[in-house]
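Model the whole thing, not chain by chain.
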Amino acid sequence: MIVRRVREKIAFTFLRLSALLVLVILIAILYYIVSNGVAVVNMNFLLKNPEKGMTGGGIFPAIVGTFYLIALTLLFALPLGVSTAVYLSEYARGKNDRVLTIIKVATRILAGIPSIVYGLLGLGLFVFVLNLRFSLLSASLTLSFLTVPIIIAASEEALESVPMSYREAALALGATKWQTVRSAVLPYALPGIMTGSILGLSRAAGETAPIMITGVAYYLPRLPASPFDQFMALPFHIFTLSTQSSNPQLTRPFQFGTVFVLMALVLLMNLVAIVIRNRYGKLRR
Amino acid sequence: MTALSTSRFKIQTKNLNLWFGEKHVLKDVNIGIEEKRITAIMGPSGCGKTTLIRVFNRMNEIIPGCRTSGEVLLDGKNVYSSDIDVVELRRRVGLVFQKPNPFPKSIHDNVAFGPKIHGITRKKQLDDFVRFSLEEAALWDEVKDRMNDSALSLSGGQQQRLCIARALAVAPEVILMDEPCSALDPVATAKIEMLMRKLAENYTVIIVTHNMQQAARVSDLTFFMYLGEVIEYGETKKIFESPKNELTEKYISGKFG
């Protein structure tokens, strides 16, 4: 009996320490970044171009570039992801379950492919074959490939949580399948779809490898004027400041500041997602 | 079965069989439903009564693995023939569900849903439909001052009458009711039953129930079903006073169910 109790104690302690360690790592990272970064972040830093070989000025073009990138990625990924999910869960279900399973597994595998592979695909397909050049467009198309599987998974889950009785009610009134989906299913799946999409996008916002080989610029003093221009982006700017600068010591505060801004952006997106979920998420009666 | 060939029937089935996968749910059902009367379909749970009424508007089709054979005639025309538009069929044959299932929209928008999907867009016309349907469903006086409130703020009985109004708003000819009172209290049930009597003046009403008292109270005609077969049919009064079949007799005297 004593042995069992000691074993229980050891197991419990080990599990608790694991959880604690995770928490400590998270807090350490956040503390390190905030304490070093917050002093750098001011209006100048947010609204000025980089100056003096990136040892002065700010990161305005990188912030704007990341916003453009996210917006375009959303524009491409959302319709594609949601349409696929609607097809899979509203149309294909029960008719051709084998094909359905294959497509489902495929989307899950897509979600697990390393981002650099997407980058290479984008480089080959968008930059060269489709001749979209090294541009904001190529980069956001590449990122949307990366985001679509996440949006599909989230949307499917959201669609499945809409009560069957809504679909039946609409169908029994003589609604077509599409009318049913559009007016009795999608509106109630929307909060879940938005939540998942924002989480997917916040991942895309932090990606460096795929944009590095499809359109991001090392330094641009002006904002991109069209989707065919190159652009600056926060994650790549961090990479540049810390590894490509002639004097990494002098750029150090800017590294922290940029990391801080990127983290804040991603956290903010996550927060929005959580708010949407809590606000509109309770569908089931 | 010579009676079945007369044209007073709004709906008729001929050798109707239905399977869910391997399960034979309806067996050689040959019945006729009279126009503008209330027909009750009663029987113990699992006897196929809900499945039977869902054949009339082809709602069983949304369940994977469902197969049907035989004919279902609406005004003499087979609803399973290839030139039948299932969307139009469901407009003509409305369905009220067991559990009130309003959309989480406003009261107005719930009733306007049907007319809207059938192409009515002018606000005035929609409002007329909504008002007419709510009056028909005996709900108008209770909700006319709060048409923009959520339908979910209504009581269970009101929600069910709202669902009836929603079904009426597309001008159906037949109204199928699938145990419409099973989730309601006695007062709300009495209101719905009164409403059914009123509806039978203009519509053909078919109600599924496992509640014998309800069948006896509201219906003109009664079918008794058991294990997928129709056992007995007749005027409700006769069925309850002098059932011919032993099973029917046992069921209405409460020996099983």
